[in-house]
Amino acid sequence: MKETLKQRTAKGLVWSGTLSAATQILNLVIGIFLGRLLTSADYGVVGVLTIFTAIASDLQSSGFTQALVNQPHAERRHYNAVFTFNVIVSGAMYAILFFCAPLIARFFRQDCLTEVSRFVFLAFLISSFSISHGGYLTKKMRNREIAVTGILALVISGITGITLALLGYRYWALAWQQVTYITVITVGRYIFTDISIRPTSDLRPIRRMAPFALKILVTKIVNTLSSNILTLVFGRLYPISQVGHYTQAYKWNTMGHSVVSNAMAQIAQAVMVEARYDGADSAAASPGPGDACDDRRTAERQLRVFRKMLRFTAFLSMPLMLGLSLVAREFIILTIGPAWEPCVPLLQILCVSGAFLPLLTVYQNLAVSRGRSDIYMWLNLGQIALQTALVVLLRHHGMTFLVAAYTAFTVSWLLPWHIAARSLLPYRWRSAAADILPFALAAAAVMSATHLLTSYITSAVPLFLTKTAVAAVLYWLTMKVFRVSILDECETYIINHISRKRK
Questions:
Q1: DSSP conformational letter for 462
Q2: Which pTM does this prediction carry?
Q3: Among 9, 51, 83, 344, which residue has the least CB neighbours within 10 Å?
Q4: How far is 243 from 102, CA to CA, in rounded Å?
């Protein structure tokens, strides 16, 4: 019996959520070990390279991964063409960055960056051989295979990094961790892809997908610049140890919101594309005077899917990230040690933006699923232009002030995205407020109440445990009192899943 879209969505969410949660748990364990073995300067050395590796990775995939997923019926020749294109572009990019390594070292005033960057840049070259395979697995919603590969890559790369850190290899431990992770991911994608993807001389599919993919490429580069602009600025203005404190705060914030963001990113585009084309196929099967009604029903169906994803995302991300901000000090001291306490205020501020970033992921996937990569591109271009102007204007006000301004801007950028969503679907402001604000206000109220209720505790361990337990119980009770349907649906799904397993 064929699974419905709702069943495939739930199943995909379970596996993508499993991967996302397992990823962050493993990253937590690995981060604790490495944080206690390495210094802030070690993290700063590798952290300033993030923007270069990320942009190179964007260029290598060139937006064709999303183009493959957006194809109603992707064929083997599409995957072969993307594979060939990725490898060629990645080889050229690595050659350019290899020779630019001394310039990067000079810009950040760190001579060691020449050798380290040349090694770290190998990661995106290796990954180019499996971009098409990753697109195939995402297109087919093979989330279980993606989860297994990701977890295995984390374990192996984590063991590699910790071992090298114990042996005294300092920042090289972080470099090897990155390269090992990508290598294992690449091997895993080959193992789980059940079609043969190989080089080809037929690049005609690339030309047909190029207009859509180019807009995605520009947007991905803009997103990368947006996410890493502060690291770039801090790397130039402040000592490398201070950059390391920001890098650590940014890492923990990213790990937190990625639990939700990555789970939604793995399925959102594929699910909304299917919701759109299922409706379109139904309309095509019965053309005639009712075409306008069919189009309206298709839009309404996709709107229902979009709103449910948005509510589910807010339901998870708001308490998770505001909760992390609540326990930030105890968390940092208990995990990576008191030496990292200067990063606590930065982490607390970043967690506010982290609560809203998963919502942006859902909005972005809506635009892509509707084939509007132009909206995706222009909104992100506007974001990086305004963020850059903001950072330049405020660069002399100190690191904490800059992070706060960056966070406020990130949250406010939801407004342009909602305006764009209204041009794609009949999505009102009142509906958006009803989908997002109740969870944000409930989470904020719960964290404030938890802070007051636990203010008498002074010891770090009891305070961390009490805050976590009290916040979780209060949030659950709040959702129950107000009869939030998302909580009921989650509980029903879990109960039914457990019942089926027992049978």
A1: H
A2: 0.68
A3: 51
A4: 20
